[in-house]
Amino acid sequence: MEIDLYFDPIDLxxxxxxxxxxxxRLGDIVRSYHTKENFPSLENxxxxxxxxxxxxxxxxxAGCKLAPDVIRDYFYRLFRGPHDLRIAxxxxxxxxxxxxxxxxxxxxxxxxxxxxxxxxxIIGGSQDLTHANYKSYEELKRIINIVSIDPLFDLGExxxxxxxxxxxxxxxxxxxxxxxxxxxxxxxxxxxxxxAIELMxxxxxxxxxxxxxRSDLExxxxxxxxxxxxxxxxxxxxxSDAPGNGNASPNGFYGEEACQIMxxxxxxxxxxxxxxxxxxxxxxxxxxxxxxxxxxIWYFIDGYYNRKKxxxxxxxxxFLKYMISxxxxxxxxxxxxxxKSDRWWMExxxxxxxxxxxxxxxxxxxxxxxxxxxxxxxxxxxxWRTYQKLM
Length: 391
Fold this sequence. Notes:
Layout: E1 7-8, H1 18-21, H2 26-29, E2 31-32, E3 47-52, H3 67-75, E4 87-93, H4 99-115, E5 119-124, H5 129-140, E6 144-149, H6 167-173, E7 179-187, H7 194-202, E8 206-209, H8 210-215, H9 220-225, E9 229-233, H10 255-266, E10 273-277, H11 288-304, E11 319-324, E12 333-338, E13 344-347, E14 363-366, H12 368-375, H13 381-390
């Protein structure tokens, strides 16, 4: 892959390598682009870290372009855990003369990594980079599901330029469109107008309030397992835990909840890109937010190396099948439970003419609670929303 022309090397002059610190940490293990002549080989690499120092479309968060290097400073000082890590840090995307140039570089790099089955972790920068990430799937003609952890929907107004507050509407309006489903986790109702909530419902998207997610964090796991791409706005974490953000507010996830969400995300066999955005070192307190972002990436990697390689659409022999009759519903509901992980899926009917197109999308990750809902003669909301899009 000839992608090195898009990157600047990172500065590791302050890092104490193992010959001085005695014990290896992530900075000793990750293949990093820290000298101009030594762009890391991507052979046998699982995960590639991409820094994007771009904030020209940030809303009320000037300073977030500083985040990639500061997050690395904390990340590289963490120990690797029990896994044999195969990670490369490609450095920072060179900022384009225009923001569109930066978007193009992000899209091109992510596309090439996806084509080679390498998982990109984007550390930004502002959340409008989510749109550039999505465009890489569009160019590959892959129909995907996006999960955003965010207190807002970031729809903006139709006439708004692409920004960190309007990227979602630009994705929805893109034609041809490759977005099958969008999920917002942790929205805060007082930040959202009724029309936006109604629009999301009419599009059969999954939007789960902060309180609902926090009341049972395990119920977030199937939502994350259904994602191809995740965008995490650090303002979804409460200000006391992540003060380094211009839009931080008193409510949000706790830091340890964010780390648990990232571990669930890492364990998803379907997920193949992640972006963490809006960290702002200029507004941070003692590096707290950057340190938390580094730990979130650590937990994601821990989850990634605990993947079970469960692909229901390819092979059903490792799953138990359950069929449930629902009163006044002509079709039985079909559930599958993994023999390896005890995780659950639902099979949603799809038109025969669309079966190949949506082969990855009519098996919907769910929880044991959804199975119990069906046993109680009720159809789970996830099933209905997916059914509306498939039929």
